[in-house]
Amino acid sequence: MDAFRALPATARTTLGRHRERAVTDQSALHAVLDEALVCHLGVIVDGCPVVLPTGYGREGDILYLHGSAANRSLAAAVQGEVCVTVTLLDGLVCARSVFHNSMNYRSAVIFGRPRLVTGEAERLAALRVISEHLIPGCWEYARQPSRKALAATAVLALALDEASVKVRAGGPSDEEEDHALATWAGVLPVGMAIGRAEPDPLLPPGVPLPPHVAALQARWSGGGGVPEPGGPASRLER
Hints:
Blueprint: E1 22-23, H1 26-35, E2 39-45, E3 48-54, E4 56-59, E5 62-68, H2 72-77, E6 82-94, E7 102-112, E8 115-116, H3 120-134, H4 138-141, H5 147-151, E9 153-159, E10 162-168, E11 186-189, H6 211-220, H7 232-236
Antiparallel strand pairs: 1-10, 2-3, 2-6, 4-5, 5-9, 6-7, 6-11, 7-10, 8-9
């Protein structure tokens, strides 16, 4: 097991509410980022806040994001501070009181100033990380990006130097006097599921489903992403 490495505490990463839900182990941050598939990039563009959903990938303590080189938001991101958020929804918490209805989740918030990746070697490595995070095995299987595609793509690198992780797990937090109510309470687990692969109608006859796609489908099929008792959400709870 990896040694405990505490996330640096700053004014921006110290939780204001439900501080008991803070998880300070850096491995917890990595776990959330590695399981989620979409992040939200918050940036100021011409004085207005903009939040963009985007794909990403993690390599060590660097988060890579990418998008169109013509995207004004990505261009603005390297001019100042950004905020990146990732959330995994693990369950809907049904309480005896509507006030205590809640969600079980794992979330990460990252602050920093990203840099534009310009070196060809790092750009290719970053795009591979992003691609493999989304569909493991696709980089070796599919055609590599052309120079035209690379020129049209911007890649940002954001150090994971200032981040926080917050986790809620378990059942409802009802008032003690409500426990005797004949009102159902509990948790509805939530997770990602991938359905049966749908071939592109333009595929030539006889092209089989590649092993890496079949493996991804098997991993998440039938609600395989729903956390089991003692799963990631429970292990990260403090």
